[in-house]
Amino acid sequence: MGEIDPEFIQETEYRPKFKTIEADEEIPVIDLSVSTPSDTKEVVSKIGEACKKWGFFQVINHGVPLELRQKIEKVAKEFFDQPMEEKRKVKRDEVNPMGYHDSEHTKNIRDWKEVFDFLVVDPTLIPASDDPDDKELRAMTNQWPHKPSEFRELCQEYTRQVEKLAFKLLELISLSLGLPADRLNGYFKDQISFARFNHYPPCPAPHLALGVGRHKDGGALTVLSQDDVGGLQIGRRSDGEWIPVKPIPDAFIINIGNCMQVWSNDLYWSAEHRVVVNSQRERFSIPFFFFPSQYVDIKPLDELINEQNLAKYKEFNWGKFFASRNRSDYKKREVENIQIDHFKVPE
Ligand SMILES: O=C(O)CCC(=O)C(=O)O
Ligand SMILES: [Fe+2]
């Protein structure tokens, strides 16, 4: 049994069990290639069902070139393979959260991973603090390493392509809610989206630590690329059971974030998920967090609420929510991380 720093150790109830979970159910795999309006209708309906039941699905024939994905995976690995001294040159700090980081905390427990974050729009403005009365904004900017030499260009090309997919999915999700395809697009005019390279090194005590502790993604949706190692697990909406997400070559994993859950007034589900690590193989993944503009106030969409279906959430400001979440990632805090449940209207 390996020894690890106590700051990585999860409370007993949150440690992974490593029992074989009966694969009686898996998240749906949806083919996005459509040639007729009736194909689109079918895709929309499958997406709607997946968002309700799981909050997760995988997509194939998504339009992001495989070659680009292979290149980006290669440079991400090359970046992390460098000595710590090199990686620290682009280390993030409390002012600028973009760049390299190796002490991410989820729910106040340290994650067994290192990350590199980069923005889609550079610079991106966010609230300077999570204090609702503080109107000041600050700029986040990208920090690019010199090596690998094609790193920056590939990262920018990757976010351009994945952003296109994110907008396509946003439109399909709007349609699935019975709304016009472009109903949600305006919320992303000054999007604060970013992408992340996750590197999970082999862990000597995979039964005690997690690559990422259980959490829900904050934004509208996440487009995730994972390698063939596996380790992502999602909490099933019906009973909370942890279900592994099977790696499928060239597929993207899509999950609903908190904003979409609120917009849909709980029809769609932002599922809790986590990453288990193993003692043998390192794992890489690349989430793209599709985040609305900081000034957008999030609340259940007017078209979806009525006397039979009252709004389940009070309005909250996305930028302030993000600023609050962001602070808690750095280090242990005494208070609980902000959650959408804090905005729930009592029944
Ligand atoms: O590595 C993964 O598969 C998922 C990572 C994740 O959930 C996150 O970075 O928010
Ligand atoms: Fe996540």
TrEMBL record:
An annotated Gene Ontology molecular function: L-ascorbic acid binding
Fe2OG dioxygenase domain residues: 191-292
Lineage, top ranks: Eukaryota, Viridiplantae, Streptophyta, Embryophyta, Tracheophyta
Protein name per Swiss-Prot or TrEMBL: Fe2OG dioxygenase domain-containing protein
The organism of origin for this protein: Populus trichocarpa (Western balsam poplar)
Family listed: Belongs to the iron/ascorbate-dependent oxidoreductase family.
Matching InterPro entries: DIOX_N, IPNS-like_FE2OG_OXY, IPNS-like_sf, Oxoglu/Fe-dep_dioxygenase_dom, Plant_2OG-oxidoreductases
Keywords: Iron, Metal-binding, Oxidoreductase, Vitamin C
